[in-house]
Amino acid sequence: MKICIIAEGSYPYVTGGVSSWIQNIATQMPEHEFIIYAIAAQKKQQGKFKYDLPANVIEVKEAFLDSYLEEDSKWGKRFRLDAEQKKNVKALLGSDGTLDWTSFIRLFRSSRFDRVSDFLTSRDFFDILEELCQEKYPLVPFTEMFWTVRSMILPLFITIRDDIPEADLYHSVSTGYAGVIGVVAKEIYNKPFLLTEHGIYSREREEEIIKAEWVKGYFKDLWIQYFYRISSCAYELSDQVTTLFGRNKEIEIELGCEAEKISIIPNGVRIKDYADLPSEKPADQYYIGAIVRVVPIKDIKTMLQSFALIKRELPNAMFYVMGPYEEDLSYYEECLQLVQSLELQDVIFTGSVKIKDYIGKMDLLMLTSISEGQPLAILEGMAAGKPFVVTNVGSCKELLEGMNDEIGAAGFVVPVMHYEQLAQAAIALCKNEKLRIEMGRNAYERVKKHYRQDDVIENYRRLYGRMGGEKNGRNRVRA
Predict the structure, then answer these.
(1) Which has more confidence, 95 or 32?
(2) Structural domains of the chain, with CATH
(3) CA-to-CA distance for 132 and 305, rounded, in angstroms?
(4) Is residue 358 within 8 Å of 368, Cβ to Cβ?
(5) What is the 8-class DSSP label of residue 452?
């Protein structure tokens, strides 16, 4: 079977998390061929892969959301959209009413447009936006609204018109633009579409926009509604949906996904890979680590603030941030500046490293994210028998405390951004070797019982087999 995995902002440009999950799926299913449809923010990322691709990955199709910058357009055309087409465009921009995604996709893949940017400089779009502003945004300057909306939706329109490789099954690992591509592929080739959500894409974009300085206050709601709307495309038109844990499923249902097509397949790790790891370190030092990308959603700054408090109590503590920092260099620089302003010693940003060379030496691990799905970083640490201090996001509480499995706690769970509580929990673990050993043992037992990678691969192997022969009976659209 030929399977097209569609990934946005992850594989093969970024390591860890979803990217590791994709690499494992492809590597451990040599009986299938895989095409990777990789969506990245900027064209400068082209070809900069962080993984050695398995032999059964036969193609990587790269798409860049900033490619709209290369498009010219002609002003003032008239495309004479009908009432349904106008309603769909307005619905995308936050107007009341439903959006018929099939009709919308067919319109913007049609030969009516030489370039999709022509529509956004057309009289039709100008009239639609003017009408929407009168209805919903009467106090917002029209010129600002026009250029904001244009930059917001151009990447979506270009994504819809992109060439998509033909496959037997399309598997998107998020909603958003990747989910839209899955739907477009389903419509073009009449093939099944599987959606997997690790984290809830629209919730994560909402959290980022709320904090973003580049979005003016009165446009934040517009951007947030837009991401929820494009996520609804995949929820509505996917054939099957998988997610990692029960709360994710509940949120997907709240956001409009049919409960009947959602199943839960947890993450997993190869436990034997974490046996007999190097563990030598100075006996008089405490090693605290974090397996994490240095990006805002992981909230490294809260982690550093907590370590400042830990360092006051335990001067011989060391802190290792183990993961890449190139993805957001400005945020990385902010973290370095915070280290300086806090006058912190013994903080090491390792960059991309072989995690197994480090985690065996750690006394405990931390994760302070403001949003998560079911973090592979936690499962890796648990497989190595390490206790955790984590924020209460995604399935972190479920991983550490279990679901009535009669295995004890594997660490401490604290509220998001509460660096004092993070520090207190870490200090308690450092000072109590017996507790560290007990929680580390619980971590290992829980992973061994519930989160084995062999089970993940077998579950997806069966799901691919069931879906690969299905026909959805839809009419084809222009390829």
Answers:
(1) 32
(2) 2-70+163-267+458-468 (3.40.50.2000), 83-152 (no CATH), 271-451 (3.40.50.2000)
(3) 45
(4) no
(5) B
